[in-house]
Specification:
About 40% of the residues lie in helices and about 20% in strands. By secondary structure, the protein is an alpha/beta fold. Strand 9 and strand 10 form a beta hairpin. The strands form four sheets. A seven-stranded antiparallel sheet has the order 6-7-8-12-9-10-11, sandwiched between helices. A four-stranded parallel sheet has the order 13-16-15-14. Strands 1-3-5 form a three-stranded parallel sheet, covered by helices on one side.
Length: about 425
């Protein structure tokens, strides 16, 4: 049996490196007794990188019973950062006394494990004290989001190591980052008991961020839910969008990337890890002090959207994407090929879109190249699907819409929800 194994960590793991890291990272199953995570060639580590590496290392040590070691240079910027972030403490490894300088001004909450609900409030309070953001609205958003993310870990993840969290604030830029990771069953497995149609990671992430979705309750059982049941990820997604922040949610083979622009418009994309991925779930939230606005107003907007979803789920069940994901098994319908041809639109709907969705397959309607779609054309494309197919919320996406086309789609969705024919 091989006695040792070394895993070399990439040279740069900044925020923009996350999709590439996710796509390539894999969980080595070496028979070696000792595993060394080598960071000596790593020049930059973002908070998410420290947290994911830490979660993996703890999983190796406690769940796989490996002797985990770290290779790092304490005098380097990345090595010093890893030490100050608590990576060695997390693994019970001795910390060197001669550590390189820290980045000026940053405030970091070191890696912390969360195993039960009782751990969450005290940790959230510690985070807010140490970050000392000094802005009531962004503090409210950070605290709310952190608690919701950790609650998901405790209630749904079945993670053998619990959850691992870290937070950081950069006063010079006003950027706050919080990261929460587990090595549990993942989003798809946590939902499939209540939603059998959620049979892959793409569907799971899309569906999990819709309002009133929870693996704890049956679909539609609003009367038995607590007021906030199934709203955590939805609220975080909306807070991110409305405040011009960013939100990554990764689980299994899929990573969702959601961000809001200066006007509060949502943008989102998905990245598939064909060889990599994450065994469990992680979330990275990024918020900026100068764009968040009033937190109470953000929450009120979220509540109004959630209430609307109970009464009329048609709009919020639609998934609008900025681009077509490159995902295996996805049926992409290029709508431009039959633009404003209602007869052909109806044929494609009945022979392609409807049957694919009914079979649980995933479909993207790609509106690339269409500046404006009439309501009659959109009606021919999707009205019957919205009325008759139960898998729309998990399996249908709409990509590359202009603002006017989106309005036409939403209008048809509203008609479909109340049965008013166009």
């Amino acid at each position: 049996m091989k006695q040792d194994s070394k895993i070399v960590i990439p040279a740069t793991l900044a925020d923009k490196s996350l999709p590439n890291f996710f796509a390539r990272w894999h969980w080595p199953q070496s028979p070696a007794r000792q595993v060394t995570l080598d960071l000596r060639l790593t020049h930059f580590l973002a908070p998410w990188a420290i947290t994911l590496i830490g979660a993996y290392a703890v999983w190796l040590k406690e769940h796989k019973k490996k002797d985990v070691q770290l290779g790092l240079d304490p005098a380097s910027v990345s090595g010093a950062y890893a030490i100050r972030a608590g990576l060695l403490d997390l693994l019970g490894l001795p910390c060197p006394t001669d550590v390189g300088p820290s980045e000026a001004g940053q405030r970091t909450v070191s890696l912390t494990r969360i195993r039960k609900s009782a751990d969450i409030p005290s940790y959230a309070n510690t985070v807010m004290k140490l970050l000392a953001i000094g802005d009531e609205d962004i503090e409210g958003a950070v605290s709310y989001s952190l608690v919701e993310l950790l609650r998901n870990v405790v209630q749904h993840s079945s993670s053998p190591i619990g959850g691992l969290s870290m937070a950081q604030y950069f006063p010079s830029t006003g950027l706050v980052e919080i990261i929460v990771a587990d090595v549990g069953i993942g989003v798809q497995s946590s939902l499939v008991g209540s939603y059998p149609e959620i049979d892959n990671d793409f569907k799971a992430l899309k569906f999990s961020m819709q309002p009133h979705v929870s693996g704890t309750f049956d679909p539609g059982s609003y009367g038995s839910m607590k007021d906030n049941a199934g709203l955590g990820l939805f609220f975080i997604k909306e807070i991110t969008t409305l405040s011009g922040g960013g939100f990554f949610l990764g689980s299994g083979k899929m990573l969702a990337n959601i961000w809001g622009d200066k006007k509060g418009k949502m943008h989102q994309g998905y990245h598939e890890a064909r060889k990599g991925g994450w065994n469990g779930t992680f979330a990275l939230l990024q918020l900026r002090r100068d764009t968040i606005g009033e937190f109470e107003a953000l929450l009120q907007t979220c509540r109004e959207l959630a209430a609307k979803a109970r009464e009329d789920p048609s709009e919020l069940s639609l998934d609008f994407l900025d681009e077509v994901p490159t995902i295996q098994g996805l049926t992409v319908v290029p709508v431009k090929e039959f633009e404003e041809n209602v007869e052909e639109a109806a044929r494609v709907r009945d022979t392609v879109v409807g049957p694919k969705l009914a079979g649980g397959e995933m479909v993207v309607l790609d509106f690339s190249g269409i500046r404006f779609a009439t309501q009659s054309f959109v009606h021919a494309c999707i009205y019957k699907v919205l009325r008759e197919c139960r898998n729309v919320s998990s399996s249908l996406s709409i990509a590359n819409c202009t603002a006017s086309t989106k309005e036409a789609i939403l209008a048809v969705a509203a008609y479909a929800s109340v049965g008013v024919k166009n």
